[in-house]
Amino acid sequence: MSQNIFKPAILALFEGRATPLQKSLIEDWLTESSHQELYFQWLEEWERQNPQLIVDADAAFFQLSNQAEAENPKTSAVRPFSRRLNFFLGIAASVLLLTGICTYVFRDAILFQQYETTNGELLTLQLPDDSRVTLNANSALKVPRFGFGKTSREVFLKGEAEFSVKHLPNHARFIVRTPDQLEVQVLGTEFMVYSRSRGSKVVLNKGKVQLRSLKTKETKPLIINAGDVVTISSKGRLTLHHNQSLAPHLGWKEYRFMFENTSVSEIAYQLTERFGVQIVIADSTLAKRTIGGTFKAETADAFLQVLAEMLEIRIIRNETPSGATQTYTLTY
Fold it and tell me: At residue 120, what are phi and psi to the nearest 5 degrees?
């Protein structure tokens, strides 16, 4: 169906006149990403052409009524009805304005299903294409509601997640995008993507993955293989590490921390990311101390208790107001 034929149905939807058949056709039409852009373009055009804010409506009404009465005194009899009509039209316009604003503000909620985890929480999802995603703590994933798997598979990740992507008969690529403009493309494989405030990385379990940073002018993507780990700098530079041990990067799926000569300052970062707590290290020497080993902990308190025994240090749980971030101080 051409755009010229389809546009009236979209406008009818904005005005609340769309039939069930039109709504069904619109839902199918929105599965194309280009159609989604056109949808919001038409919405902005419709809002400009249908201003919902009536400025000084009473003054405009009385001016029109007085002019009509001067030309024909008999029209004064219809003034009460006209005022009531203007009142109801104002209500209708307000409803349309609210609908337009809600559609614009909540368009992400309309077009995407969002999944989120909180402090210490893990979540495993089965996507419409039968791919599986496991979200680490304090992470979020946006998945399109319409057409996922038919022509493309594109999701948006903030935080950390492991993907087990199913290859489809139509060879639709699975694309992961992150806030720092990292693009990860696969057909079917297992990999992990980490994207938080201090940087990003990709860890590949099986198959091949194509990476590209949209921050740089380089158009040639980086192809990585199983066992590779790629870190991404704040400027979009990709650094490839071959034949890496993947266990330390994936232990979080079992609530495990895996360290190999890891500094206390790095451990503090990981606790903040996973449990949402704030760690204050009172001594610079303590911050540089390192430990190794595997530790399982589902709360910050449980891990810090083990850390205190290993390093023979004190962990002070600071008093914080209700609802504020819990703070711990590490000291000798």
Answer: 70, 5
**Helix or strand holding residue 158 (H, E):** strand 153-164
* pLDDT score recorded for residue 187: 85
Using CA of residue 165, residue 171, residue 172, residue 174, what is the dihedral sign? positive
Percentage of the chain exceeding pLDDT 70: 79
Tens digit of each residue's pLDDT (9 = 90 or more) over 154-182:
999 999 999 999 999 989 999 999 999 99
Strand-strand pairing, 278-281 and 327-331? parallel
Per the model's pLDDT, the better-predicted residue between 68 and 218 turns out to be 218
Alpha helices, H only, the chain: 3-14, 20-29, 33-49, 57-71, 79-105, 107-111, 247-250, 264-275, 284-288, 300-311
Kindly tell me if the per-residue pLDDT of 51 is higher than 90: no
Beta bridge pairs of residue 20: none
Q: Which domains occur in the chain, in start order? A: 3-109 (no CATH), 111-245 (2.60.120.1440), 255-331 (3.55.50.30)
Distance between CA atoms of residues 258 and 251, nearest Å: 7
Binned at pLDDT 50, 70 and 90, residue 61 comes out as: very low
Q: Which residues of 150-167 are buried (b: 16+ CB within 10 A; e: fewer)?
A: eebbbbbbbbbbbbbbee
pTM for this prediction: 0.70
Residue 221 half-sphere exposure toward CB, CA atoms < 13 A: 12
Q: Give the 3-state secondary structure of residue 106.
A: coil
The 314-317 sheet, strands edge to edge = 278-281, 327-331, 314-317
Non-local CB neighbours of 3 within 8 Å, separated by 6+ positions: 38
